[in-house]
């Protein structure tokens, strides 16, 4: 207890830690009903092919507009969904929603993020196969973005899932490359087809010689293994010029298009 200013009374002292726990419980409680209350939506950010500047595909990103809490960022609620297991129904819904939206366009490709727990779930390959079947999207038009953390688990369930997904014919992309316990050996050990350089390295392009060296090395090694590279977080023309210079294949970022309705990225679907 701390003595309150100016009065003789006492009020309960709420620690930062207690406040975090309380927030976490509220998030969990609200997230449980979010799907049923229709509070979730998927936005899309264009992925640009640097050789010709055209949209190659889009990344699906989840948004939560909570009636009670307002807009909650994925960085806050995805971990809660992970820990509670809510990621299974939510992830399933994202997959279907993203595949359905993109299937309306001819040949358009979509990237969907998967969390470690989804990848370790033996039901995942079936869930992906069903999403493709129900929406009519062909497997070559779906890419699943995995993180190094998910691959690090490297338990039998995860390895089996990767093999099954590869057999389905979907592309596997290593996301946020360089931020985790990263090792290029992961590209060798797992059936990963492409990688995305995290925006923390892109941010320093043009200013930080170290970041340029890292980006250059990652592109060089990925290309040596015949894997295409996407740069995340491209915000300035200067970033773009250097990435083109370094032979980066694709780019994504606020400069090229913010996450939003699919029509913002690719216009109306053909009738
Ligand atoms: P991520 O997969 O690395 O997604 C890229 C993040 O960078 C997105 O944040 C995007 O809005 C943001 N971004 C894109 N361009 C720029 C830029 O130029 N500058 C800056 N500063 N940021 C940019 P968002 O949407 O808040 O998502 C954060 C993370 O949450 C994602 O990182 C992903 O790991 C996770 N996430 C989002 N949607 C899903 C989902 O449906 N399922 C799962 N499992 N995770 C998701
Ligand atoms: Mg991603
Ligand atoms: Mg990423
Ligand atoms: Mg990232």
TrEMBL record:
Domain annotation EAL: ranges: 24-271
Protein name (Swiss-Prot/TrEMBL): EAL domain-containing protein
Superkingdom of the source species: Bacteria
């Amino acid at each position: 207890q701390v003595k309150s200013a100016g009065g003789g009374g006492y009020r309960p002292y709420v620690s930062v830690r207690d406040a975090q726990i309380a927030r976490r419980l509220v998030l969990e409680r609200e997230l449980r009903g979010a799907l049923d209350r229709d509070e979730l939506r998927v936005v899309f950010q264009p992925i640009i092919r640097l050789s010709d500047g055209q949209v190659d595909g889009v990344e699906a990103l989840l948004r939560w507009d909570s009636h009670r809490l307002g807009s909650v960022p994925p960085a806050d609620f995805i971990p809660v969904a992970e820990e509670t297991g809510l990621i299974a129904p939510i992830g399933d819904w994202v997959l279907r929603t993203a595949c359905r939206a993109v299937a309306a366009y001819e040949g358009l490709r979509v990237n969907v993020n998967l969390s470690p727990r989804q990848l370790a779930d033996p039901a995942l390959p079936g869930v992906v196969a069903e999403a493709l079947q129900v929406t009519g999207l062909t497997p070559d038009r779906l890419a699943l973005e995995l993180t190094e953390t998910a691959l690090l688990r490297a338990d039998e369930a995860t390895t089996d899932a990767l093999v099954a997904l590869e057999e389905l014919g979907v592309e596997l992309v290593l996301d946020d490359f360089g931020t985790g316990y990263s090792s290029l050996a992961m590209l060798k050990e797992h059936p990963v087809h492409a990688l995305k350089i995290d925006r923390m390295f892109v941010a320093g392009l043009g200013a930080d010689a170290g970041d340029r060296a890292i980006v250059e090395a990652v592109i060089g090694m990925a290309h040596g293994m015949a894997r295409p590279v996407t740069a995340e977080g491209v915000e300035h023309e200067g970033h773009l010029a250097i990435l083109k210079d370094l032979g980066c294949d694709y780019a994504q970022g606020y400069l090229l298009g913010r996450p939003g309705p699919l029509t913002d990225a690719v216009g109306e679907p053909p009738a």
